[in-house]
Every structure is written in C-alpha cells, then in structure tokens.
C-alpha cells in the first residue's frame, strides 16, 4: 500500500477552466456551484495532479482522527475499529466498494506501507504568488516517477500489453494527457495519433477477443469507455483498425468534456 499525503497548500491548475487554486480550497469552490460539485471537482483535480484515475472519495468528518497509517494499523489489530471508521466518514463509494477497500487495507502489514508527504519531499517547492502568499508548486516529472515506482499496478506491467491512443477530437493534447494516466498505471503506450473523424463517445478496442478479459483492457475501458466492457465496441476508421497495438483507446468529445467543460 502506498499513501500519498497531499498538503492543502499544494497549488495546481484545476480542470474545467477554474484556474489555479490551493488543494485545500477545491472542495469549497465546487460546492459554490449549482448544482454542487465539490466531490467531483476534487476527484478530477487530484486525478489531474497525480495522473491517475480516482475511484472514490472518503471524507473524514473529524480532522483530529488518527492518520491513515494508524487507521489501517488499527483495522488489522481490532476489527471493531472498522465500524468506528464507517461512522466517522462520508463517501461516494458504494457499500461493496467500501467493504472491499477496508477488507484489502486491513490485511496490509505496517512494513508493507510506503508513505510520502509531498510537502516534505523534493517533489514540491515553495512559490511566491503575486499577492505575496506562499504555496507549494509540484514538479510533475518527479511526481510521476514516484507514482510509477510505487503506485503503478504490477498486474498491468506483467501483462505488458501494447496500447495505442487516438485523439478523435479537434482538441490538441488529449492523447498525451491520456498517455500520462495509462503510463502512471503501468501500461505500455506505443502509439499516439490523431484521427480525421470526430467521435462523440470514446472507445476501447482489442485486437483479439481474449484480450477483453485482461486487466489492462478492463481498466482502460472502465476509465475511458465503460460501455465497451459489456459489449464489443467497433471502429469505422481504417487508421485505427490498422493499429499494431493490442489495445486501442479512441478519445471522443466525452473525454474532452470530462476535463474541460463546466
């Protein structure tokens, strides 16, 4: 288990055109919208910062509670601590997802936990803003290196399937953004390209039917095109169909809207 502590003072550019803010201000900023989007804006922002999909949000109501490391250790020692934890949080995880998270975390030994506090690492640096306030800037290259060394999924590296990412929108840079996410997860992206045709909905395609059962395909489809998990998606673009990659991700307007449209 890897625990990444992100200081409220970390300063970053938010998705959806909200400008640059401290992490500690993101949730409240989203709650000012109608309808309120505090949780979604925070998840998207952290996802953009670390270059990883964020499955869910767990908010501790009492900030004086033990650290995450101590909480996990407490679950292992005393199962009743898990009930105390459940009463003290709010979350957008489903009951099944929350159960799986607590169950898997409870089996982790202290020596299996890697922790990094961004504020106390060389990944962040103090920055002075025009209003004379100080914030923490993030070195994305160093952060990505830490994530790939400590958080990437070993199953994906073991499968070692090749991926192609096609940008089927008129918006530049989307394929590179998706590549960062896939690479941080531990996937092997070998092709980045654009298509002439514009798609509204993203697709995830596989060269062979058996590849649909791999973790690489399922994780890719879960993030980019959940509908391609239940049914086989197809492409009508010869450039995409001729890709030599085993799994192909085609980014549609929905991927752009997720990050850039309010």
Please tell me about this protein's structure.
By secondary structure, the protein is α/β, with parallel strands linked by helices. The protein has three domains: 2-115, no CATH class; 119-150, no CATH class; 154-260, Alpha-Beta Plaits. 41% of the residues lie in helices and 20% in strands. It is built from twelve helices and twelve strands. The strands form five sheets. Strands 10-9-12-11 form a four-stranded mixed beta sheet. Helix 6 packs parallel to helix 8 (174-185). The model has no long low-confidence stretch (mean pLDDT 92). Residues 161-255 form the LytR/CpsA/Psr regulator C-terminal domain. This is LytR/CpsA/Psr regulator C-terminal domain-containing protein.
Q: What's the rounded overall pLDDT mean? A: 92
Order of helices and strands: EEEHHEHHEHEEEHHEHEEHHHEH
How many strand segments? Answer: 12
* N-end to C-end Cα span: 34 Å
**Sheet/helix structural class:** alpha/beta
Provide the β-strand percentage band. Answer: 15-25%
Shape descriptor reads globular
Largest sheet: 4 strands, mixed
Q: What is the domain total for the residues?
A: 3
Number of helices: 12
Q: What share of residues is helical?
A: 40-55%
> How are the strands of the biggest sheet laid out side by side?
10-9-12-11
- Please state the CA-atom Rg, rounded to the nearest Å: 20 Å
- The low-confidence runs, each spanning 5 or more residues with pLDDT under 50, are none
């Amino acid at each position: 288990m890897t625990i990444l502590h992100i200081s409220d003072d970390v300063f970053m550019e938010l998705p959806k055109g909200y400008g640059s803010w401290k992490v500690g201000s993101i949730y409240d900023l989203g709650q000012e919208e109608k309808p309120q989007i505090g949780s979604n804006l925070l998840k998207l922002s952290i996802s953009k910062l670390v270059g990883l999909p964020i499955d869910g949000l767990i908010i501790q109501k009492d900030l004086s509670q033990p650290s995450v490391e101590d909480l996990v250790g407490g679950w292992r020692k005393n199962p009743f601590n898990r009930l105390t934890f459940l009463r003290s949080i709010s979350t957008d995880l489903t009951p099944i997802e929350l159960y799986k998270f607590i169950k898997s975390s409870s089996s982790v030994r202290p020596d299996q936990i890697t922790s990094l506090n961004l504020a106390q690492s060389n990944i962040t640096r103090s920055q002075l803003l025009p209003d004379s306030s100080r914030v923490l800037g993030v070195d994305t290259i160093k952060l990505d290196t830490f994530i790939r060394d400590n958080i990437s999924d070993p199953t994906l590296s073991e499968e070692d399937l090749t991926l192609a990412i096609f940008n089927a929108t008129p918006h530049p840079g989307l394929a590179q953004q998706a590549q960062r996410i896939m690479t941080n997860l531990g996937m092997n992206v070998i092709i980045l390209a654009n298509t002439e045709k514009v798609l509204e909905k993203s697709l995830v395609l596989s060269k062979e039917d058996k590849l649909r059962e791999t973790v690489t395909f399922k994780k890719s489809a879960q993030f980019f095109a959940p509908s391609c998990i239940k049914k086989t998606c197809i492409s009508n673009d010869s450039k995409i169909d001729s890709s030599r990659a085993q799994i192909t991700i085609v980014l549609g307007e929905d991927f752009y809207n997720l990050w850039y449209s309010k």
